[in-house]
Amino acid sequence: MEIIDKFCWEEHKKVVTQDQHKIQGLKNLAYWNLSSASPPTPEHHHTDIIEIHCLIKGKRISRVNGRDYTITGNELFLTFPHEEHSNGSYHQSPCSFYGFQVDIRDRKHLLGLNEEYSAALYKILTSLEFRHLRFDPADRQLLQLAFDNICDGDPDALRLGVQYLSCFLFKIPEFIPVSSDYKPIMDGNIKRALELIEKEFREILHLQELAVVSGYSLSRFKIKFKEEVGITPANYILFKKLEYAKTLLKTTEKSVTQIALDAGFSSSNYFSTVMKRLTNYTPGEYRKHFAGDRKIPGSSSAS
């Protein structure tokens, strides 16, 4: 089926449609800021539309042609016309992203550009070898300025917003493809902090301790970590605990309380609250859904 979102202006979801912005060759322009998990988007397609999602923070899973892609901060993901895509069976995790749809039916007037520039943009978007790309943190400002100005409503601001969006789109060939063996060049100081988190995430980790390891001041560390990783260090640690707990729920018969403690949560109540908010499942529901009747080595069944 084909899904086209309607105009929406809520705290967690802002969608501006073409009948609102009236930019030729641009369909919906959106900003999502999900603070809790939401149900997966069903499989759908878009006719004559290239859809681009640009993750600012968090994680989003997209399934295209039976393959799952995990998109994280400072990465974009494209789906091409008529491609069936969805979130698979995954609930949408808390994240924020910009999304926009380029209508390629009239290749001479994409984003209101003249024929020469429109044809150049059409060639870029339709001949990309990769759909999953990493952009520079500085490029996020182009997205924010494009969205803010286009949504402003003032004609001058609208024209300025189109220029910012065009700048971002024309830079896409410079972005780095993300593949399973791709390892981005990371700030060495932040890498040391990540290595400590990897070893100690189940223990009590203070951000000041991580800042010292990185060699940055606390304020600089938090800014630099988010630039490099895409989310705050506190959220990164929380997600590490949660992923570990999810694995225990699927592969062991340990109680929810024991799993909460093993994963480094302060209490089973807090673990359950975080689990529900970030996955839309309680620990018990998650175990039942993902472990099912599968036998666990050394045990009779999953509880």
Question: Can you give a write-up of this model?
Answer:
- The protein has 303 residues and is α+β, with helices and mostly antiparallel strands.
- It has 2 domains: 8-177, Jelly Rolls; 188-291, Homeodomain-like (Arc Repressor Mutant, subunit A).
- It is 42% helix and 19% strand.
- The protein contains 11 helices and 10 strands.
- The chain has helices at residues 18-21, 115-126, 140-152, 155-170, 188-200, 207-214, 218-229, 233-251, 256-263, 268-279, 283-291; strands at residues 8-9, 13-16, 26-34, 49-64, 67-72, 75-79, 85-86, 95-103, 132-134, 176-177.
- Strands 1, 2, 3, 4, 5, 6, 7, 8, 9 and 10 form a 10-stranded antiparallel sheet that branches.
- Helix 5 (188-200) packs across helix 6 (207-214), helix 8 packs antiparallel against helix 9 (256-263) and helix 8 packs across helix 11 (283-291).
State the gist of this model.
By secondary structure, this protein is of the alpha+beta class. The chain is built from 11 helices and 10 strands. Helix content is 42%, strand content 19%.
